[in-house]
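Translate sequence into structure tokens.
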Amino acid sequence: MKLKESLYKSFNKITNGYATVSPEELCCYAYDATGQTFMPDIVVFPSSTSEVSQILEIASKEKIPVIPRGSGSGMTGGSLAVQGGIVMAMSRMNRIIEIDCDNLTAKVEPGVITGEFHKAVEKYKLFYPPDPASSSFCTIGGNLGECAGGPKAVKYGVTRDYVLGLEAVLSSGQIINTGVKTAKGVAGYDLTRLIVGSEGTLAVITQATLKLLPLPESVKTMAALFPTIDHAAKAVSAIIKESVVPRCLEFLDKSSIDCVRSQFGFDVPYNINAILIIEVDGTNQVVAQDAQKIREFCISKGAVKVIIAADSKEATTLWSARKALSAALFKIAPNKINEDIVVPISLIPEMVKRIEQIKDRTQLTIVSFGHAGDGNIHCNIMYNKQDEKQLTLAESAMDELFAHTLELGGTITGEHGVGITKMKYLPKEVKESEMEIMRGIKRVFDPHNILNPGKIFII
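Result follows.
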């Protein structure tokens, strides 16, 4: 679409000059981590709920698509302007409004960087568990839109478990407030949990009231090295069933290890084909006991060696290897399909076997790592899209991966969302009767279908 000059002037006035139609600047907001590109017609940078409301009121009247955007780090195209329109970049709404130490809550705007929020609450010896791998640059708003998880989800849950209430703006420009400030609240339908994870298709979040926890007294990080991927996969399900519940239980296969071998801070022998990064927290005494228990348990399940980080510096080194993985994968191939399947924990060994079968059939490198403690495996299919045969094999590998996942009672996405990349697979998991309910909810919130259109499903 071609944006009217009068509309540009209106948006520019509302935002006090923070709107742009410069092609060079639009390019910066035309892509995300999928590598796909869709040019918006304008990018606006609101600084308040009132500005968001005024922009949406005009967009609703003019039937212009509006796409809320955080840092653009999403993996499924959720922040892409697939139909053009307005990209609403929330980077100026980046205030931590309040940290309430007495009630263990915080009030924040959507543009707050997640990692910066972690640091801010930790100064008060408080703890916000959701910790996606991109926490150093992703935003709370993006986390809310996708219901992000992270390594600590195995013990503490995901983003929606820490959202008490929201301030949000509907497509009409109407400002709504959902949820409560208290630990409990069941007055009416839970609109808060409905909006969290809706990928910006129902409302634009402008403030969130988040639940905090006391910062654990002690944390211990360890790495268990296994000779085979099967040993590690079986250890994951067994640890959860028979041992303590760690706060993190991450899984890396051989291809992952090879990508970041030099970043672990210790020598990884070449006969090691899988590593579990495990973390426990709690009181000093409990953590020491749990770490020793898990160490003994891993060795009994076939671990060649278990390395326990001596201090926070060594622990940071271990995690830096894990967090460096996504970028390091491009050493293998120029393109990747990054999927975040989830299966029941007890079926991780079976899912790992099936991934190995897909690798054998396609002869593509498939790198698996992720949050094995809750069955969430990040499966990266590496290929060269300039090679037509590899592209076809990669797409068939994705089809097969999702088919196996659903057959085992899993889900096609644990934390990345549907966006545009998984739209065609959603009906394989969600029945048409349930899809129609979702479409009905969308119509109630957004009758003109201007909020992030073309995502999740087609209206």
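Note: The domain at 96-214 is CATH 3.30.465.10 (Uridine Diphospho-n-acetylenolpyruvylglucosamine Reductase; domain 3).
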